[in-house]
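[step 3/7] fold_predict: job queued, chain A
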Amino acid sequence: MDTYTIPAPESGNTIFTNEVWKKHGSPPTLILEDGWTAIGNAAFSGAKNLLTIHIPKSVEVIQEEAFSRATSLREVTFEEGSRLVYIGAAAFYGTTNLRMIRIPDSVNEIGMVAFSSATSLETFHMPKLVEVLPHGMFMGSTSLREITFDADSLLKTIQLGAFSEATALTKIRIPAGVTDIENEAFGNTQMLKEITFTPNSQISRIGYQAFKGSGLTMVVMGKPVLAHLNTARRASYMKPLSLGKNNFYGKDNVNIVSMAQQIDTMHLIKSQLPRQLDNHMTNKIGEMLTGMMPKRSDLVKGPATKALGGTKKRGIRRKSNKRKMKTKKGKSKRRMTRK
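[step 4/7] structure written:
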């Protein structure tokens, strides 16, 4: 199927609208040329035949409901150097064939339910400048299995129902700057088993039903994070959390483990493998996952390493004695030759 290119007007309105698309025959595979500055409100709303679109770097705004219920849309690409800063509410709501979209790093605001009911969306990378993951953003996005964040993400708030009924999500790593997770943010996420709060997490408030209906079984956090949350819980007359089993904001029997315990668990698993990993390598993996050194020094050196060190020293002495013996024999033979 041929790709159709639509140039921007040389003067006048540079917002791409539904009328412009229809004027060009509503082509299903579309490239917008540089010069368009926005995708207009409901520009492709309800489109049944739009398959792909390439958005130029000049577009700074995707307005509300721009692609909502465009049920055949499967690919959205952005020109390198994109200046996009805003994605409006419900912009990609109900795009049931959209599997993956890489939002430009320049985006700093996304509207509510922007990707709600995008039922084929599997992975998503949050632009680091976005401070609020909005209300219902992935609500009902039933194929979403992974969301990632930059290490220096500016995200501060995960709003009400942001991941509600995202039933394929299995685990998530919360960026350090997040301070607030609102009610039902992860409601009815039956496959969600594990949450990790990154080292130096600033989390201070979680809605009391944030994980209601989730499959959560384990939360990994440092002790300072636990202290932050307990300060807020005491102010709300809630029972304090502790390492071990807890009711964790709407979900019973959630095991809270420290990051040091997680490293210990890695070593236990390693010791039971048929072919053991090197201790140093195991610790490095643990540090990358948690940002912390193991809490016991024997996990760094390891008993196997100590034993190896002892054998190695004895082996060096034996080799040294053999050299001396050979040297003496060699000299003796040379003297006999001279005679």
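[step 5/7] annotate
The radius of gyration is 29 Å.
The CA atoms of residues 263 and 286 lie 5 Å apart.
exit 0
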